[in-house]
Structure formats: C-alpha cells, structure tokens
Input
Amino acid sequence: MPIVTVRRISQVFFLILFFWLCLVASVGDRWWQLRGWPVNWLLDLDPLTALATMLSTGTLYAPLLWSLAALVLTAALGRFFCGFACPLGALNQFFGWLGQYSSKPLGRVRANRPRPARVIKYYLLLFLLACALTGTLATGLLDPLPLLHRSINLTLAPILDSGSLILSFKPRHYGSAWLIGAVLLAILGLNLVIPRFFCRFACPLGALFGLLSRFAPWRIGKAADHCGECTVCEAYCEGACSPSGTVVTGECLMCCNCLERCPHGRIRFDAKPSAGGEAPLPDLSRRGVVMGAAAGLFTGPALRLGGLTGPNNNPNLIRPPGALDEERFLARCIRCGQCMRACPSNIIQPALAEAGLEGLWTPAINYRLGDSGCQVNCIACGQVCPTAAIRPLTVDEKRGRADFAAAGPIRLGSALVDRSRCLPWVLDRPCIVCQELCPVSPKAIFTRTVFEAIRDGRAKIMTASQDSLEVAGLGPVNAPLAGGDYYLRRSGRQQEALRRISVFEGNRIGLVKAPGWSAPPEPGEAVDIVVRLQRPYVDASRCIGCGMCEHECPVAGLRAIRVNSENESRSRRGRLII
Amino acid sequence: MNKPSDTGHRAEGALTRRDFIKRAAAASALTLSAGALYAGLYDGRGPQPGDLGKVLTGLGDFSVQTASGQGRMAIVRGADRAAMLERAVTALGGIEAFIQKGDRVLIKVNAAFATPPSLGATTNPELFAAMARLCLAAGAASVTVTDNPINNPESCFALTGIAEAASLAGAGLIIPGEGMFSPLTLPGGKLLVDWPVMAGAFKGVTKLIAMAPVKDHARAGASMILKNFYGLLGGRRNVFHQKIAGIITELSLLAKPTLCVLDGTRVMLTNGPTGGSLSDLKAADTLIVSTDPVAADAAGLELLERTISEVPYIRMAEAAGAGHADYTRLNPVRINLGA
Output
C-alpha cells in the first residue's frame, strides 16, 4: 500500500477517534456516553502539555506518560504526529486541499514555498515554555489538541446538538463560545490562503516536534542531488520544507506526498542525509530566541502583578470542586474544556474575564446557567481533567465522609443572602426556596421567623366573635390572606398571641381556632394584618457553595442569594469562618 | 459585458418583441408573487402584548368512578413496601378496579434530587417498580414514569434508582426535555396562568398514579402527594413559593390522579425536603394508598406528627374540590403486616 494511502487512513482514523472521544465525553447513561472511555487519550499524548506542566509544576502527572510515546517516535522518525495523527492537522490539510483545488501546479508550488514567518512558531513555543517556567501555563490557548477539544466541546458539539439533542437533553450553554468558535474558524479559514497555515506558522506543538526531530536518524531526502527539478514534490508538500532543494527536516510534516509524487522516485525516507542538502530547522535568529524567551519570562509575572491569584482575587470566580488554589490551578489548566463538557449541570463555563487574561477560558462556575447547582454526589469534572488542575476527587472526599470526615466537605465558596433583593427581607413575601433546596444536612440555610404588619393592613373591627370578625377600612390587599402566612394582631397588644387567618371574604375574616383570645375584641378596636416571614440566613460553617440556592432563587435576574469564593476550600486566603 | 444574447439585448441595443414580452411576463410574475406573499402574511394589528396563543386548561381527570361515589383508602403498616402496596391495592378492590387492559399509565414520582433512595428524599424505586409491575400485570399497554426534578434530570433518575427500576420493571422513563412543556392556564387559576407544564408526558395517557414520600417542608409545612405535583411545572416555578398554599391548591386541580401512593415507611422529619442524612428520617412503617390525594396527605400528616392547621393547603385543596381533608370519612381499611 502506498505510504500516502497509509497516511490518509491514519489521519481519518485519528480524526474519527477524536470525534468519537468528544462524543463519548457527553454525560448520560448510554454505552456511548461517559463511562470509562479514554476521553483524554489524545490530550495525554501531547508532549507539549507534558513539558509545559513539568516546567510549571516540577512534576509529570501520571496520564501524561502517554506523551512519551509521541516523543520517542518523533525523536526517531520526525513529525509523524503532524502528518499522521493530529486531528487539527488533518482538518487543516483538508481545508488546504480545498483551497488549492483548482490551482495550477505552479500556483501550488508558490503556495508551498518556504516563508520566513515559519520561525514564529519556534519563538512562540519558547515564549510559552518561558511563561510556564514562571508558573503561567498558556500553551493550551494554541496547542492544537486542547484547542480542538475546546472548540468542539464548547461550540461545534452544542450547536450541532441543539436541534437533535442526542448528546444532551437540553441545549447546552457556553459563555464566550462565540470567540472560541471564531478562533477555530480563523484557523481553518486561513488554510484557504496558505495551506496548513496554522501548522506552518503558529503551532507550538509542531515547533516542539520540529525540535524533537533534530536527531531523527530517518528522514525525508533526495537520493541524488541531480533531479529534473520539476518541483512536483513542492507542489504537494504540506510542510513547505523544500524537498527539492535543501530540505528543512524540522519543518517536514511527514505527509509523504513527495515520496509518491516524484516522477523518478528520487525522494526517499532513509537513514542517509539528503543528497540535496538538509537543515534540521529553519534559520532561527538569536534575537528572536532571546526575545521569545525573555517575553515569556516577563509575561507571567506581569500578569500576576494585578494580584488576581492573591489579595485581589475575583470573589465571583468559583472554580469547580477539587480545583487547586489559583496559582497551582493556573500552572496546570490547559483550557481543553473537558470539565465543561462533562459537567451534567452545564454550570462549568469558560471564563472570559472572570479569571483575568491569564485565566482566559479556564473553567469558572456560573450558577445562573444550566440545570442545577453543583450536585453533591457528582465528581465528573475532576475525573476528566487531564492535568489534575481539578483534582480527581472521590465522592467521599467531596462530601467529607469516611477518611475525609475530619477535613469536611469540599467548599466551592459560600452563599450570602442579598438582603436588598430577597423576597422575605424586602418585599414582605414568604419564599425560602433557598432553604428548601439546600442539600446539606443539617441545612446550611436556616430561617428566623418575624411577623411584619403589611402595607395598608390596619382595619377597624365592626363585629367580632371568637373565630370570626367583620372589619372596615382595610386597604386593597394583594396577598393571599387565607393562605396560611397571614395573621391578625390586635393593635397595641404585641405580647398577645397572633391569630392565623383561615378565611378572607370581603370584609369577613375567619381565624384558626387555637390559640383563641381570652375575650373577643370590641367593635371599634384596631387590628393589623401581619405576615409571617421566614427570613433566610446562611450558616457559613456548613455552606459548601454548591449554588443550589443561587440557581433556584426566584429573583431571576441578579439573584438574591449568591455564592462567591469566600470560604472556598481550595484557598486558605479565602477562609471566612474559623 | 457578456454576449448580447445573455443580457437579452440585440447588437443594436433594441429589444425584440419576444424578449420584451418575456421580460414583462417575468417581471409581472415577480410582482404578483411578492404581492401574494405580502397579502398572505399581512398583519394589520401588529404584535399584541403577551400573545398567549393556544393554552391548555388542565392535564386531565384520571380518577376512577367508584360504585359509592366515595373515595377509598387503605393504610397498611409493615416494612416491606412491595408487600404493603399489594395488600393495600387488594383491599381497595384489586388493581383491576383501577387499571384496565390497554391503559396507558403515567406514574408521577418524586425524583427531585440526585440522592440515593436510602436518604428518603425521593420515591422509593422498589415501591415504584412494584406499582409498575401491578399495572403491567393488569394488562396496561404501557407504564411510563416521569418528574421534572430540581437537579438535572439524568442524574436524578440515575441516582434515585428510578431509571434502573423502570428498566427492570418494563416501564418507560420520560426525561423532561424542552419540547415537553406547553403553556397552561387553569380555569379560575390565579397563579397557573400561561405557565409551562409537562404536557408532553401526558400524551395518550389514560391513568395517572402519584407516588411520593412523606417529608418535612419548611415553607409548605409538608411535602407529600399534592406538593409533589410541583414536579409537573416547568419554567422558573419557584416564584410560586411566595404563595405556596395557593400554588399547591391549584396543583391539586391540575390533574386528578387515579391512585395515590404515599410512602411513610421512612418519614423525613427534619431538614426537608432534601434531607441528606439518615438522622433526618424516622421509621413510621406505614403506606397510604388512596384515590383521594387530599385525604392521603391528611393521613400522611399524622406520620409527620403535624396538625392540619400547620399545613393550610390541605383545607384549601378540599375547598377547591380536590378531595377530603377529613380522611376518616373514606373509612380507610387498616391492615397490619407487622413491621
């Protein structure tokens, strides 16, 4: 079988595998949904993630051991990953092919000529690695594997699924998905201008593979210096690595088109150096290398100057359960969006500004979106996190049970009642949905009961018996007086037991029998209608910040009870109740 | 420009008669179709505020007429839920009195929370499965189960064990999707006005069985059969909590069940309706089965150690005509299977 056919089969295989792993990352109870599928396998193969997290954390998280396979194969064979495996590379190649569909051979050669800008990706790689060294992991923004996962998870899958709803029961929401999708569109669209635009100029993973292939014993090259110089090889060269002249092996994407296209079979994949001359990498300028690295070393600390990871943290930034403290979190998160995809409640969202520029597209919880708060028995996000930026918790650890009883439950933050918006606090309306839905036992939200005279609720007694009275002078009342929440109080008798109203018709008020009055009030006496209000309070020592209350609060705009990061487990700084 | 024939011009720039007629015909056709489109879609009034469109008025009356015209009730003491259910149904005249061959049965459970059945916040899966089996044995064409829970539906049905129980018993699980809700205005209703309810689950349904546990509820006083109908509502339904007794009263009129199964085997005395701890539960070892949802709730109150004046919606539902608050009038059959 021709090697190009093998390459195409491999590309299609990996592309299908990629889409399959995206598909099975959806939450549900069917066999093709989340249930032990290796949904992170392609992310784990990524040596850029491995290297950058090694720099940012000083350790290699276990699943990233897979990337060693990609690394070893690249060191021996060159950038096979770009040509044979990378799903974004395959998509780029497809769109590049579309763009060149009607091009004449000479136009193709022009499209594939080496361009000076190809060195940018190496400087970018150095920049990102230098950032990582200072603890700012930004590789995920441009690394093709997290980038494609993010784009599919948060834009393409939800859009395609919104009509059929195969992946989810309700349309999924993702904030700033438009921007994530626009980046993908731009990357794919640029292939129409120059094939493999992203791979050639911007891909930091490709640059890393280029460097890793420096000593590859086998590589593409010419068998004889003299060929017809027909440049057919160049017309189909994906990497623009000049196979007809001095081949730049670090730029070769192993598309193998030259092997097949050369009319005389003068190009081969061999352990011998190319007869036409070869260079391991394009000419990197010392200035560029130093600038890239220096910019990286400055950028991380510059982003931290604002103190967002410390004293100036955004109190509205709620990280998923098990997320590390902000500094360690930012040293690990590759913004792949797997947690956002796996979250059954659809509350984990890509941050746009919540976590600062450094935290672009990192996971942040929005309790207004989605189906519920963070479910107490759910640990999906940590289980799918490829770098343990969100630690893989057990249910026991999340709930603070068994071995974790002493540590207590994981707290995402703490809810606080906004007394300027809460119905029983300012609108004289009973409510306590938040108390009802608090899943903690005993509840973290408790109530204190007060009785408040309602507006225009003073009336004069016309006639009165023990359980029934006629009144006059009652204002227009827009409240269900017989609904069990309203009571009658004799004016000036604050100490006397209140009588619950059970009937309200016209001017007649019926009362629940017990407790009765010692004697019925006299005609002419004034009475007030009071409402019993259970006002919610949060016991911050019990609140886990799950946001059930905020999600369900009937004040639908700006909620009257909101979770912020106060008291979150992940940061000692945020401790509120000691 | 292109060749003259492409644009309809002759070399001299004049139009032939044939070309002119063709163009005139095409232009007229264009004008006519545009005019037809304008006329067909013409709206002289403009949009109305809150255009309600078609709304439902109820989800249906699924109650079964008895010979006496009276509601019936059985109160069974015991520990084995399935056995208690079977005895209770037998005491009420057997399942055939309620489910006939070919009936399509919808079971409305309480699956509000993604918590395990042991915590008693949701309908017990074994009890539900026993009910589903009884219906199928009586010849029901289909048994489906649904709820519009508070946590996300897939998790709720999975963790409460109801999804698995449904598939084992041969019942269909209806997970509430966007398309299942239709607006409803209850005749005489003050709260249920143009409000989305889960009408999709009722398509073709001929019998409705309501199954709920007995639970504490700080706002409503108690959460049993009637409060569980909250799970038929969609939208941001929590706004109704400010008139909780009113909304539960309207819910009692939304759909009239064939049979109500109120599970007081374990009663949630504190921290309801979520619970979360075994210490919130008390063993009351009682199952109440009734055709009357109001009576079932009134009887359930005793298990919760509460009085009817603490739970105003029961009397209000009675006044609205949904059933009897004095459940003893149903002459409940009392059976003791031994706990």
Q: What stands out?
A: Residues 1-5 of chain B have pLDDT under 50 and may be disordered.
